[in-house]
UniProtKB/TrEMBL annotation:
InterPro entries cross-referenced by the UniProt entry: AB_hydrolase_fold (IPR029058), Tannase/feruloyl_esterase (IPR011118)
Signal peptide positions on this chain: 1-16
Alphabetical keyword list: Calcium, Disulfide bond, Hydrolase, Metal-binding, Serine esterase, Signal
Chain segments annotated as transmembrane: none
GO MF annotation list: feruloyl esterase activity; metal ion binding
Family stated for the protein in its record: Belongs to the tannase family.
Top-tier EC class: hydrolase
EC number: 3.1.1.-
Protein name per UniProt: Carboxylic ester hydrolase
Amino acid sequence: MRAVYQLLAVAAPAAALTITDLCTTSYAQSALPAPGFYNGITIDASSVVTTLGTNYSISGNDFFPDAVINYCNVSFAYTHDGRDDTVNVAYWVPDPSKFSNRFLSTGGFGLAINSGASTVSGGVSLGAVSGLTDGGFGGFSAQDDTTFLLANGTVNWENAYMFGYQGIHEMTVLGKEFTKNLFGINNGTKLYSYYHSCSEGGREGWSQLQRFNEFDGASVGAPAFRYAFQQIQHLYSNVVEQTLNYYPPPCELEAILNATITACDPLDGLTDGVVSRTDLCKLQFDIESVLGTPYYCAASSGGGGFPGKAKRQMGAGATPVQNGTVSAKAIEVAKTILDGLHDTQGRRVYFSYQPTATWSDAATQYNSATGEWELSISGLGAEFVTRYLDLQNVSTLSTLDGVTYDTMKGWIYGLWQQYEDSLQTTWPDLTHLQESGAKVIHMHGESDFSIPTASSVRYWESVRQIMFPGLSYNESSAQLQDFYRLYLVPGGSHCSPNANEANGGWPQTSVNQLIDWVENGIAPDTLNSTIFYGPNTGDSKPICLWPLRPLWTGNGTTMECVYDQASIDTWHYDINAFKMPVY
Ligand SMILES: *[C@@H]1O[C@H](CO)[C@@H](O)[C@H](O)[C@H]1NC(C)=O
Ligand SMILES: *[C@@H]1O[C@H](CO)[C@@H](O)[C@H](O)[C@H]1NC(C)=O
Ligand SMILES: *[C@@H]1O[C@H](CO)[C@@H](O)[C@H](O)[C@H]1NC(C)=O
Ligand SMILES: *[C@@H]1O[C@H](CO)[C@@H](O)[C@H](O)[C@H]1NC(C)=O
Ligand SMILES: *[C@@H]1O[C@H](CO)[C@@H](O)[C@H](O)[C@H]1NC(C)=O
Ligand SMILES: *[C@@H]1O[C@H](CO)[C@@H](O)[C@H](O)[C@H]1NC(C)=O
Ligand SMILES: *[C@@H]1O[C@H](CO)[C@@H](O)[C@H](O)[C@H]1NC(C)=O
Ligand SMILES: *[C@@H]1O[C@H](CO)[C@@H](O)[C@H](O)[C@H]1NC(C)=O
Ligand SMILES: *[C@@H]1O[C@H](CO)[C@@H](O)[C@H](O)[C@H]1NC(C)=O
Ligand SMILES: *[C@@H]1O[C@H](CO)[C@@H](O)[C@H](O)[C@H]1NC(C)=O
Ligand SMILES: [Ca+2]
């Protein structure tokens, strides 16, 4: 410790420290957490690499407004004593003149534990030293699954533990200390510490919030938590298709999607192309009404693209002209998917996406030899069966032969038990957060096609019930909102704005509002959002605080956030297929 502070004592008086001064190996080495700072971790000082980045442009980022930044990427490696492993961390450091006494921790998506430059750059634009980790998986671009097994049948539990929660935790604790040393922040100055990420990164955020007190605030989007349920439900649409023996052409599902959006758009009081109330859509719209609607999609040479963002219905590979009318079979498939997974005794196992989500998991593939549309197994779900449950070094299921709804229930139960303490991430008691004064902004697109929006509502509701059992709904909601606020984003897709509902906004400044809440005490009664598509691009729109719901009155002139019990009730499900509580 002393050596570090002596070095800084020399550096500190140079008030006009530039990023070029800072971005040297020796300067970065002088600021490393001292030996023994983190019990059980040894940093390899010789591994420090500094890279200066100038005029890096943040543009079109869903979570950070456009900006141009300079940064220094400082990376280093450490080992866990006695394990002989290597974990790499990297911190993007802002220009000292832009540093605002902030640290931002970040996570990944899919099976990644980091998001490359996309989130740390945003943190730098807000004056935060911003960290990411490789979790010890063998490099920043290595995903969790590459090292999840040591061999067939043997879980690499260090990997499960690092991916589950420990990797981000270590990166955060080391990064805060590194930041303090780097900028000579002593006891008197508060270093504000934050977290931001979405999807798997949202789960990683909750993995921290449920266990530790390292953040003053966190902005988490669409968390992939309730892990066993979340991953297996990706296979549900496929099992529905197989069970009902109907593989809808993508265009037919797109026609159902289009009709749903058209029918449900006005229910919120404003016909603007956005279904702001998917709950009213569930209550008032019956997919049966789409029966017989003609559909047509031109032939395509393939390409596909990220579903929900550019195209309405994923289609990889070449596809023929699709011309027909929406069939009763397609409607049965669509309704069964939206109804969510039930076991063969009719008990609820899980729930599904909201109507208006693209039917991404249900995408079929065209067999040009037979001229038929056939099953395309969701790779997202399948790997959790082969690798994470069956412990075989295989990334996907080759078939769903023999797989029933009960099989899926068994898979969920197996994964749940196996990873309850590492990946499940639904611990509902946040008393330590409440007591620490930390703030959480949690957001989820209402048209998310990858993580059911109701999953976030269920967790918020679990926390409310566990933490405030004696209070009324309104009273407990208010107490929870003092530190944990949930926002459902009208029209929002999976961690992104949604071209299908162009006028819907996306909360691009959630971290700004989090900072305002933490540092200035300005609690976000509504979350701001920015329109990314269509003629109103750039405009902003407020998003209601759960459990209030948006409703336009005055012929679409005024948006109110209203309390609507019947709508709230549609978001809650009785998962009665298990005897254990499902938080
Ligand atoms: C960065 O942009 C500024 C302003 O446009 C310019 O003056 C400067 O030369 C650029 N720096 C580099 C390294 O490109
Ligand atoms: C940071 O630097 C390290 C070391 O050069 C590099 O491996 C890593 O990709 C960089 N990360 C980012 C996000 O720039
Ligand atoms: C898993 O399979 C991949 C690809 O065949 C191989 O590179 C890797 O070494 C295997 N891992 C284990 C633990 O067997
Ligand atoms: C904080 O200040 C106290 C009193 O000066 C000192 O003993 C302590 O070491 C300081 N802690 C750090 C982390 O600098
Ligand atoms: C669905 O609506 C979109 C946007 O208006 C349109 O481009 C697409 O062709 C429609 N698809 C079908 C199957 O009607
Ligand atoms: C679709 O098929 C119907 C019935 O065969 C035909 O009348 C119609 O012209 C076709 N539409 C297009 C755009 O090809
Ligand atoms: C691991 O299991 C898979 C699936 O059973 C098999 O294909 C693969 O060959 C096995 N690998 C080894 C190293 O035994
Ligand atoms: C709860 O609060 C809402 C306003 O947010 C109000 O409309 C509702 O009547 C309240 N419910 C009870 C039981 O007080
Ligand atoms: C949110 O929107 C309000 C109203 O437009 C505005 O005053 C405020 O500055 C915005 N906050 C952020 C963090 O962008
Ligand atoms: C409601 O707004 C629409 C579109 O702006 C307009 O055409 C219509 O006349 C308005 N109706 C009333 C009753 O004001
Ligand atoms: Ca609308």
